[in-house]
Design goal:
two-stranded parallel sheet; elongated; 19 helices; about 45% helix; four-stranded antiparallel beta sheet; alpha+beta; about 375 residues
């Protein structure tokens, strides 16, 4: 009897595992693998070390959710199996080509179309609904926004391994994978984790413009351009601004440098195609965006989530790095912008675009009612008391 029961249970696991894999394939996911709720015991300590070292910067939500984030069972005590889905979003060409065009803004590949959170979560909900009905089990789906450490879970499930740039690397899809997960109370067949195949390669580490990797497999978000241009709300370190170049939202350098990208298979039909107007948007046009125009231009894009002021701050850094004097007129106008973040970066950009004497003349004629301390600091940094 025990053997018969075990065989029956295994058959049920096989059936449900096959069902969820078939559903994933039908909805366009490139990878679907499964791990257990106890698969990442080392994640909590690693996360703690990262936060205790202050490498999370101003992302306080990471510190606030560290306990739930470090162990899936703390997030949901009843979870038994975790299904991790991967979607290849690899670009058709090396995205670093735009870095040689300083008059254009470089937007990270993942953000050049619809917000992937919405796209993937919608598909996962479809799978979860059908799976729950078939399995008679509870399910929850997550796409990046919940306190789930999806990269360690994906590595444990065998989608790939966390490379030296801390992102997931796949022998099939390189460094270009969106991840989503489905937690369930059902017992499913567990996949083997993937071995680390980075070897002695350090291409991703050497590619980082701001030296954001203190050591292989470690990242300091405070120096990461993706963090600085997306998550960081305050003033960006003046020493890092010139290194940002024309990257106005995110940075793909470490991902694009990964040699495993050479072996990436063609992406699935579900792949999000980049909007043409987001591949190489003009800095001059982006500097002209007010809040309404920003919301319209980036409708449906994840860029919209950071808001117009933070985005224009980024564009002004790119303008200051461009050497394009023609941007100076709009930068002058933006020194009077309602947003202190925009005013401050407009000052910095102008100080780099204008001749010293010309900038000094402009500064002497500026309004004297500036009261924001960060903006005043930018004037002082530019040599104007």
């Amino acid at each position: 009897m025990p053997e018969r029961t075990a065989a029956k249970e295994q058959k049920r696991r096989d059936t449900l595992t096959g069902f969820v894999r078939a559903e994933a394939q039908a909805l366009g996911f490139d990878l679907c693998r499964i791990t257990g709720a106890d698969a990442i015991p080392e994640a909590k300590d690693r996360l703690g070390e990262f936060i205790d070292a202050g490498r999370h910067g101003t992302m306080e939500w990471m510190a606030e959710t560290r306990d739930r984030r470090g162990d899936p069972r703390t997030l949901w005590s009843d979870v038994k199996s975790i299904v991790v889905f991967g979607l290849n979003y690899g670009p058709d060409e090396d995205p670093r080509g735009i870095l040689a065009k300083p008059e254009m803004g470089a937007i990270s590949v993942y953000a050049r179309n619809r917000d992937y959170h919405d796209v993937i979560k919608g598909r996962l909900k479809e799978i979860a609904t059908r799976f729950a009905a078939r399995a008679g089990a509870d399910v929850k789906v997550f796409v990046d926004t919940a306190p789930v450490m999806e990269k360690p879970l994906a590595a444990a499930a065998g989608l790939g391994w966390q490379g030296k740039h801390t992102n997931l690397v796949s022998r099939i899809h390189g460094s270009w994978l969106f991840l989503g997960s489905m937690f369930t109370t059902a017992e499913l067949n567990i996949d083997e984790p993937e071995a680390d195949h980075c070897g002695s390669c350090r291409a991703c580490l050497d590619a980082c413009p701001t030296d954001a990797f203190p050591a292989p497999y470690q990242i300091d978000a405070r120096r990461c351009i993706s963090y600085l241009t997306i998550e960081h709300k305050g003033s960006i370190d003046p020493h890092l601004r010139p290194l940002i170049g024309n990257r106005i939202y995110g940075c793909d350098d470490c991902l694009a440098a990964c040699p495993w990208n050479k072996f990436a298979r063609e992406a699935s039909e579900m792949k999000l195609q980049a909007r043409e107007d987001l591949k190489e948007p003009s800095i001059e046009y982006l500097l002209s965006l007010d809040d309404a125009a920003f919301r319209t231009f980036f409708s449906g894009s994840p860029v919209k989530r950071i808001g117009r002021d933070r985005f224009v701050r980024n564009v002004l850094i790119a303008a200051g790095n461009s050497g394009e004097r023609r941007f100076a007129g709009r930068c002058r106008e933006l020194t009077l912008d309602p947003s202190p973040a925009v005013r401050g970066m407009a000052v910095w950009a102008l100080s780099r675009l204008l001749e010293t004497s010309e900038f000094a003349t402009f500064a002497a004629q500026r309004p004297s009612d500036e009261s924001d301390s960060d903006v005043l600091d930018e004037w002082r940094l530019a040599g104007v008391a």
